[in-house]
Amino acid sequence: MTAQTFDDFPATPDAVATLVANHRQFLSFLEKRVESREVAEDILQEAFVRGLDSESLQAAESATAWFYRALRNAIVDHYRRRGTEARVLEQVAAETSDEVQPDVELMDTVCSCIKTLLGALKPEYARALQRVELDDVSVRDYAAEEQMTANAAGVRVFRAREALKRRLIQSCGTCADHGCLDCRCGMRERLPKSC
Fold it and tell me: Under CATH, which number does the domain 6-96 receive?
């Protein structure tokens, strides 16, 4: 593959030079019409590429007017895409807004196994998982309870999860890979019946 030069594009070199010379004005035009400079730069870059590939961009004297029309069309396309994305997100949110109730029997089994294994962890790890995972306390609230920063609490919860994962694999072996739903390691028989 060879590198392209301006001679490889349908636009004339004079038209390209005119567009490049007006880059700052084009960017300013876009910034006033879209939500951020980054979006404006993206739209401008895409418009330059399309403009260079266009057979319509021939004469330097009409290049600026032609390019402003192209930018207006690009803005319209941008907002159409955003509108479509917003509608899709709203639809997904509406579909998932119904709260799904967990399977009680499944939760009892998993919670029992986890609670038993928590005792094998460092006390601070066990407490972190109990509060954040089982009691459904936010990491920020847990951090306040423990008088530590939210960042430090997040690290502790992460390390506790990793330690629990290792204990679960040691205790349950390969059935842990299947979510302990078809447990054959004998752990189920040693567990209390509820969380």
Answer: 1.10.1740
Residue 50 to residues 2, 26, 53, 153, 161: CA-CA distances in angstroms?
Answer: 20, 15, 5, 50, 50
**pLDDT, tens digit, 9 for 90 and up, residues 23-68:** 899 999 999 999 899 999 999 999 888 877 766 666 556 788 888 8
End-to-end CA distance of the chain: 64
Distance (Å, rounded) from C-alpha 50 to C-alpha 41?
14
pLDDT of residue 123: 92
For domain 104-190, the CATH architecture is: Orthogonal Bundle (1.10)
- Rg (Cα) of the chain, in Å, rounded? 30
Q: Which residue ranges make up each domain of the chain?
A: 6-96, 104-190
- H or E element: which one contains 37? helix 37-53
pLDDT digits (tens, 9 = 90+) for 109-168: 555 667 778 888 899 999 998 898 888 889 999 999 999 998 889 899 999 988 888 887
Distance CA 153, CA 39 (A): 36
Tell me the C-alpha distance between 144 and 26, whole Å.
50
